[in-house]
Design brief:
globular; binds ligand LLP; 428 residues; alpha/beta
Length: 428
C-alpha cells in the first residue's frame, strides 16, 4: 500500500507534511489520530463539483455516524454541506457548531417524541420516517405545532448489496424502512394532511463497491416514483443514501466517489427524463467515503511475542479505539516509523484488550520493528473514533488536525473524564 498523500519518509523517519510523526507523538502521545484537513476539504470541493446537475438541485449529506465532532461540523457548515443526524447527541453536537439546521436530515428507526420535538424546534430540514408508528408519533406532534414538517419516507428497496451481513440494510428482513411492497404505503401518503411528504429515502448498506447495486436501487426507487405519479402523487425529493466503498487494503478496488457521482448524475438525469418524473432535489448521504481516507492512527509498539505460527506485535490501543476488525472482520494496513531496513516478516497486530478478538491486523508483512517504534494504521477516519469505547477502562485517544499548523480536534480522554458521574458505594 502506498503512503497516504502528504506523508513521506525522510532519512527513514515518517513525516506528515513538515511535521515529524515522532515529534507529534512525543507531544501528544499515542494512540493518536491524525486528520488531514486539507485533503478532506479538497475532497469536499471535488465531490460538490462532481455531483451537480442542471436538471435538479443536488446536495451531499455527510452521514454523521462515521464521525460526529464539532470540528467536522464546523468545516461542513463552512462549506455549506448537509449532514444527517440520528440522535440527540448528534443533534446537539451540530447545534454546538451553530450548524444550519436547514441542512440537516433526521434519521433513526426509533426516534423518541423528545427527539422529534427538539428537532422541530431546531428547524431540521427533513425528517426521515422509518416506520408507521414513528409516522403517527410525528403526526401527533405536528398537530400541536405550526411549523411545516417536511418528511421523507425511508423505504426498503430490497436490493441485497454485496457487503458484510451487519452492514446490509435492504434485505427483506432489515430493521430499517418500510418495505417497498407494503400495500398501505400509498394509501397513507395519499391520506396524509399534517406532514408535508416530499419523497423517499433509501440506503442499501455500507462499504459497497459494486456500482450496479447503486444504479439498481436508484432505478427501483425511480420506478416507484413513476408508479406514484401514475396515481397522481407527485413527490419532488429523493435521498439515495450512502454506502460507497473505500479501499482499506490492496485487496479492495479503488472507488473514486467523484468519478462515480459524475456517472450517477448522468444516469439519474437520463432515467428521470425517461420516466418523465418531476424530481427537483436529489441528495446522497456518504459517511465513510467522505472521511475515512483522511485519518490514520499512530500507536506505539510494545511487546513483541512469538507463538507457534505467529509473531505478535502488541500496540497500545486496539478494539477500544477500533472495533471494526473484531466486529466486521474489517481489514487494515499499516506502516512503521521509523522505516527499518530489515527484511520483512509476517506479523499479527494485537491490541491491549482482554479479548482474543482484539486483533487489529491479522497478517501484515513489515520490516521487523523494535519495541518503542510507531505503527500507523491507515484509513481510520470512519467508524473508529465514532465507535470507540472505554472497555477495560482504557481511555479514548486524541485527534489532531495537521495542516500548516496543528489543531487539537479532540483532547485525549483523562481518567477524570472517565470517572465523571461514576459514584462510590457507601456502607449503609
Ligand atoms: N445513510 C444512512 C441512513 C446510514 O445508515 C448510513 C450508514 C449512511 C448513510 C452512510 O453509509 P456510509 O457511506 O458511511 O457507508 N459501523 C459500520 C458502518 C455502519 C453504517 C451505518 N449506516 C462500519 O464500521 O463499517
Amino acid at each position: 500500500m502506498n503512503l497516504p498523500l502528504n506523508y513521506h519518509y525522510k532519512n527513514g523517519e515518517l513525516y506528515m507534511k513538515k511535521f515529524k510523526i515522532e515529534e507529534l507523538v512525543k507531544t501528544y502521545g499515542t494512540p493518536l489520530l491524525i486528520f488531514d484537513e486539507e485533503r478532506f476539504i479538497d475532497h469536499l470541493l471535488e465531490l460538490e463539483t462532481a455531483f451537480r446537475s442542471t436538471r435538479f438541485k443536488t446536495g451531499i449529506v455527510y452521514a454523521s455516524k462515521a464521525l460526529s465532532l464539532p470540528y467536522i461540523y464546523d468545516i461542513l457548515e463552512y462549506y455549506k454541506y448537509y449532514i444527517d443526524i440520528v440522535s440527540f447527541g448528534e443533534m446537539l453536537t451540530a447545534k454546538a457548531s451553530d450548524f444550519n439546521f436547514k441542512h440537516v436530515f433526521f434519521h433513526g428507526n426509533n426516534k423518541s417524541s423528545k427527539e422529534l420535538m427538539k428537532a422541530i424546534e431546531l428547524g431540521v430540514a427533513y425528517f426521515v420516517i422509518d416506520n408507521y408508528e414513528e409516522w403517527d408519533r410525528l403526526k401527533t406532534i405536528a398537530k400541536t405545532r405550526k411549523e411545516e414538517i417536511k418528511v421523507l419516507i425511508r423505504i426498503n428497496p430490497r436490493v441485497e448489496a454485496e457487503t458484510h451481513e451487519f452492514i446490509k440494510t435492504a434485505t427483506p428482513d432489515s430493521k430499517f424502512g418500510i418495505d417497498i411492497e407494503d400495500n398501505h404505503l400509498i394509501q397513507r401518503i395519499r391520506g396524509e394532511r399534517d406532514l408535508n411528504i416530499q419523497g423517499f429515502h433509501i440506503h442499501i448498506g455500507s462499504q459497497i463497491f459494486r456500482k450496479d447495486s447503486f444504479f439498481k436501487a436508484a432505478n427501483i426507487l425511480l420506478d416507484y416514483y413513476k408508479k406514484l405519479k401514475e396515481q397522481d402523487i407527485i413527490l419532488p425529493v429523493i435521498n439515495l443514501g450512502g454506502g460507497f466503498g473505500v479501499a482499506y487494503t490492496e485487496k479492495d478496488e479503488a472507488f473514486s466517489l467523484a468519478d462515480f457521482l459524475k456517472d450517477y448524475v448522468l444516469f439519474l438525469e437520463h432515467e428521470i427524463k425517461n420516466k418523465d418524473l418531476a424530481i427537483k432535489e436529489i441528495y446522497i448521504e456518504p459517511g465513510r467515503s467522505l472521511i475515512n481516507d483522511y485519518m490514520n492512527t499512530v500507536y506505539e509498539i510494545g511487546t513483541k511475542k512469538r507463538v507457534p505460527g505467529k509473531n505478535y506485535l502488541f500496540i497500545d490501543g486496539g478494539m477500544g479505539d477500533n472495533i471494526r476488525p473484531a466486529l466486521y472482520g474489517a481489514e487494515y494496513t499499516a506502516i512503521t516509523d521509523p522505516k527499518r531496513p530489515n527484511d520483512k516478516m509476517d506479523f499479527t497486530i494485537g491490541g491491549k484488550f482482554c479479548e482474543s478478538s482484539d486483533i487489529l491486523i491479522d497478517r501484515i508483512s513489515l520490516p521487523d520493528p523494535e519495541t518503542g517504534d510507531r505503527l500507523m494504521v491507515l484509513g481510520t477516519g470512519a467508524y473508529t473514533y465514532a465507535m470507540a469505547s472505554n472497555y477495560n477502562r482504557f481511555l479514548k485517544p486524541m485527534i489532531i488536525s495537521v495542516h500548516d499548523d496543528i489543531h487539537t480536534m479532540v483532547e485525549r480522554q483523562s481518567i477524570e473524564d472517565l470517572l465523571k458521574g461514576e459514584n462510590h458505594w457507601k456502607i449503609r
